[in-house]
Design goal:
Blueprint lengths: L1 H26 L9 E7 L3 H7 L6 E8 L6 E3 L6 E4 L4 E5 L2 E5 L5 E2 L5 E2 L5 E2 L17 E3 L4 E4 L2 E6 L2 E4 L5 E5 L2 E4 L5 E4 L3 E4 L1 E3 L5 H36 L3
Antiparallel strand pairs: 1-2, 3-18, 4-17, 5-6, 5-9, 6-15, 7-8, 10-11, 11-12, 13-16, 14-15
Helix pairs in contact: 1-3
Length: 245
């Protein structure tokens, strides 16, 4: 009976963690460039370990929390320094000596013409150097689909470069739609994706899907909680029977 109790407990704990993941997805449903996380479950004991050592009782756990990098929608803003990536890839930004990757293209200029993201990180261009624009004569900025930048009709030397990584599972979330890349993994320029000026990529979170998953998980959690209550009642009854005589 104890093994069955722990089986229900492990399932309840896993579902509680899944609810936390859904809550995080929903909280970022309106965050530009945000990518939702998906959870997969696994049994702790498999095969002969389950049938012999655990006497057929299954212990559940979260096997993996992985990021879904599928494309979000396009939201027109009409702002010259808003860009969205149509296709795979990321913008590359830098803070001090630390490099990050992002799909959020809400950009701005500081007083020296440096191109920065919404968190104040420098946007890197083709050569991996921070982008800087000369806007002393005005700010008529045009960004072509290949990332080429023109200021007042004059093409600048560098451009907004889209980068890709071979294994996206090596990207780890660092907050604010930013990702870091594991050591030993390299990025490379990507020229097949479009840079769309005057747009931002929306989150790829679908409210309906997340709410449906939340309801299903909540129901399972309630069932497992009732199972735990039943085990508690049985344990109390056993104690009562054991004390007779």
């Amino acid at each position: 009976m104890v093994s069955g109790k722990y089986s229900a407990l492990s399932g309840a704990v896993a579902k509680e963690q899944a609810m936390g993941n859904i809550a995080s997805n929903l909280a970022n449903a309106n965050t530009s460039g945000f990518k939702k996380d998906r959870i997969s479950f696994a049994a702790i004991l498999r095969g002969t370990n389950q049938t012999t050592n655990a006497q057929g009782v299954n212990y559940a756990r979260i096997r993996k929390i992985g990021t879904d990098f599928s494309q979000g929608g396009m939201q027109p803003t009409g702002r010259q320094l808003d860009v969205a990536i149509d296709g795979e890839g990321f913008l590359k930004v830098q803070k001090n000596n630390e490099v990050f990757y992002t799909r959020s293209g809400h950009l701005m200029l500081d007083e020296t013409g440096m191109v920065k993201n919404q968190d104040g990180l420098n946007v890197l261009g083709t050569a991996g150097d921070p982008l800087q624009l000369d806007t002393s004569a005005g700010q008529d900025i045009y960004i072509a689909e290949n990332g080429t930048i023109s200021v007042n009709g004059k093409v600048v030397d560098s451009k907004i470069q889209v980068f890709t990584v071979e294994d996206q599972s090596k990207l780890k979330k660092a907050g604010n739609s930013l990702y870091t890349l594991e050591t030993g993994t390299a990025d490379q320029p990507l020229d097949t994706s479009r840079v769309v000026q005057g747009n931002l990529e929306t989150s790829n979170v679908t409210m309906m899907d997340e709410m449906t998953a939340m309801i299903a998980i909540q129901r399972t959690f309630e069932i497992q909680s009732k199972v735990l209550e039943s085990y508690s009642v049985l344990a109390n009854k056993q104690d009562e029977l054991g004390s007779i005589g």
